[in-house]
Amino acid sequence: MSTLKVAGLRATIAANGADVLRGVDLEINSGEVHALMGPNGSGKSTLSHTLMGSAEYEVQGGSVTLDGEELLGLPTYQRAARGLFVAMQYPVEIPGVRLADFLEAALTGAGRSTDDLDARLAAEAERLGVADRFLRRGVNVEFSGGEQKRLETLQLAVLAPKFAILDEIDSGLDVDALRDVSRRVEAMTQERGLGVLAITHYARLLTELRPDRVHVLMGGRVVASGGPELAEQLERTGYEGLAAELGVEETIAPASVPDDPFADPGF
Ligand code: ADP
Ligand code: MG
């Protein structure tokens, strides 16, 4: 069994110094599904990018360990090689690079076998309802939002990491695609012990992908954690209602962006 542990993680935006993550704590074991919910701008995507080592964010403190090994300070490809995967909220287009080439590079970079890659890719594509023509184009090039999310899930299935962070994998998906994607992820948790952090706004994803734990991120901190009933409570109260119930309103101010020195040129 593996454990991904985030402790006291603090991070700022490199471009403007805004303080976004203010001490995030999370612990996920193999086979568990954790849902992370939170209002817009609360730092959910910042957390997923920081875990993967994006240069757009600067870590100010805390730790991120996978089976006790510190990941902070490692380049992204080494975090991936240790078993971390992020499905991005806004996947990037890679013109001229087909998915098979992209996956071959990812597996080779991690020192893993590419034997049977074509067969595995074809089998997973069929299981996820990804048509062949999408595999012949550049990764994500001229894909709809929903197609991109199916393709992210296909990458996840072939790469088979230990932990996957799914940043709004449900946004842009129609009902059928939502069911296909969540069933595939759910099967990976059962069959291969994949641990999942599913960032979402919608309880609908959580009816398919049944979470063991639900966390609420506000103002860059996990302000509440509980079982699936927490997601139901949120549907009723909204984030403001929950913050009022918890008495954490003052602590959840959004990230303060330093004043723009060029905003008022004074002449
Ligand atoms: P969420 O995913 O919870 O909606 P984000 O993590 O994307 O929130 O953003 C948190 C805050 O940080 C927002 O105010 C957002 O505008 C800001 N932010 C995030 N990334 C950047 C960036 N690269 N440059 C400038 N501001 C950013
Ligand atoms: Mg986001």
Task: Describe the overall structure.
With 267 residues, the chain is of the alpha/beta class. The protein has one domain (3-49, 56-246): P-loop containing nucleotide triphosphate hydrolases (Rossmann fold, 3-Layer(aba) Sandwich), CATH 3.40.50. 37% of the residues lie in helices and 27% in strands. The chain has 9 helices and 12 strands. It has helices at residues 44-52, 76-81, 99-109, 117-128, 132-136, 145-159, 175-191, 203-208, 229-246, and strands spanning 3-13, 19-29, 33-37, 57-66, 69-70, 84-87, 94-98, 138-139, 163-167, 195-199, 213-218, 221-226. The chain has a 6-stranded mixed β-sheet with strand order 6-9-10-3-11-12, with helices on both faces. Strands 2-1-4-5 form a 4-stranded antiparallel β-sheet. Strands 7-8 form a two-stranded antiparallel sheet. The N and C termini lie far apart (63 Å). The structure holds adenosine-5'-diphosphate (ADP) and magnesium ion (MG). Magnesium ion binds at residues 44-45, 89. Magnesium ion (MG) is lined by residues 44-45, 89.
Concise overview:
This protein is of the alpha/beta class and 267 residues long.
Summary tags:
single chain; 267 residues; alpha/beta; six-stranded mixed sheet; four-stranded antiparallel sheet; 12 strands; binds adenosine-5'-diphosphate
Annotate the secondary structure layout.
Blueprint: E1 3-13, E2 19-29, E3 33-37, H1 44-52, E4 57-66, E5 69-70, H2 76-81, E6 84-87, E7 94-98, H3 99-109, H4 117-128, H5 132-136, E8 138-139, H6 145-159, E9 163-167, H7 175-191, E10 195-199, H8 203-208, E11 213-218, E12 221-226, H9 229-246
Parallel strand pairs: 3-10, 3-11, 6-9, 9-10
Antiparallel strand pairs: 1-2, 1-4, 4-5, 7-8, 11-12
This protein binds adenosine-5'-diphosphate and magnesium ion (MG).
